[in-house]
Amino acid sequence: EILVNNGVKEITLLGQNVNSYLDNDEKLKFPDLLKKLEEIGVPRIRFMTSHPKDLSDALIEVMANSRNIERHIHLPVQAGNSEVLKAMNRGYTKEQYLSLVEKLRKNIPDIGITTDIIVAFPNETEIQFQDTLDLVKKVQYDSAFTFIYSKRNGTKAAKMSGFIPKEIASDRLERLNKEINKISKNILNSQIGKKECLLIDGFFSDKNGEYLIGRTSRNLKVKVEENPEKIGEFVNVVIEGIEKNTLKATVI
After folding, report:
1. Residue 36 CB: number of other CB atoms within 10 A?
2. So what's the pLDDT on residue 225?
3. Same structural domain for residues 106 and 166?
4. Half-sphere exposure of residue 158: CA atoms within 13 angstroms, side-chain side
5. pTM over 0.90, yes/no
6. Are 77 and 115 a contacting pair, CB within 8 Å?
7. What is the C-alpha to C-alpha distance for residues 189 and 106, in angstroms, rounded to an integer?
8. pLDDT in tens, 55-75
9. What backbone torsions phi and psi does residue 215 show, to the nearest 5 degrees?
10. Quick one: 213 and 143 in the same domain?
């Protein structure tokens, strides 16, 4: 309430697994917390990160019915093969993850989904890696943070045999990123012509001029020519093009 009264327009709830939030005193779970924030009048609400094993139907319902919660969810999958996911101790299968994505798409058709993926986990086969590529194609992520597995002392994985050679791991990462970048570009192209209400949260300049930066509801970055005094304000725009991985827009 204090933040809203002081003019804050967007709040991001941040945690390793925000879905597992529980206020023992008030018996509030994460969907209840989001409802409370909406009742207070927070104009825009974002949150990350969501662990798939704790993503509930109640949370999806709250997101679907809200005007304040942005149409974006970061849902780390880590791998697209159930055997690898079990070795990672992720607590879900590939099929269960895809079922969650199906629920999200059905209830929130315009949602943007991002993720984290690790390649070359110990003993990962080429066929298992292909399962990850298959999942990426099915989900159609807006973007992804991708990594090659790195050993961490003290973890169960560090004691596993079957370390993947560097050249194979690098090749898998390159192929994964190529597929993700292709999907991301298609998604950006699909936004052209759409009208958006951006919260301007940054400013930058280059050889072509000075621009303000905002994000769409599904967390896509947009640059727009506008007065720097608009930072921290809402601006209505129409998406007109793409520059690298950023949308370009004009104020309307």
Report:
1. 13
2. 87
3. yes
4. 6
5. yes
6. yes
7. 22
8. 999 999 999 999 999 999 999
9. -130, 145
10. no
Q: Specify the amino acid at residue 163.
A: F
Q: Which of 165, 190, 215 is the last residue of a domain?
A: 190
Judged by DSSP in three states, 203 sits in strand
Residue corresponding to tokens 């090749």? 171
Low-confidence ranges of the chain (pLDDT < 70): none
- Token pair of 132 as six digits: 């990850």
Is omega for the bond preceding 125 within 30 degrees of 0, making it cis? no
The owner of tokens 């967390």 is: 219
For 113, the token pair is 């989904």
pLDDT per residue as tens digits for the range 138-161: 999 999 999 999 999 999 999 999
Under 8 Å CB-to-CB from 4, ≥6 apart: which residues?
Answer: 40, 41, 42, 43
Residues 72 and 132 in one domain: yes
- Domain end position, chosen among 190, 207, 235: 190
145 and 221 both lie in a single domain:
no
Please give the residue range of the domain that contains residue 242.
195-251
Strand order in the sheet with 143-148: 72-74, 112-119, 143-148
Q: What is the pLDDT, as a whole number, of residue 179?
A: 99
Q: Residues 152, 121: one domain?
A: yes
Count CA within 13 A, CB hemisphere, residue 75.
28
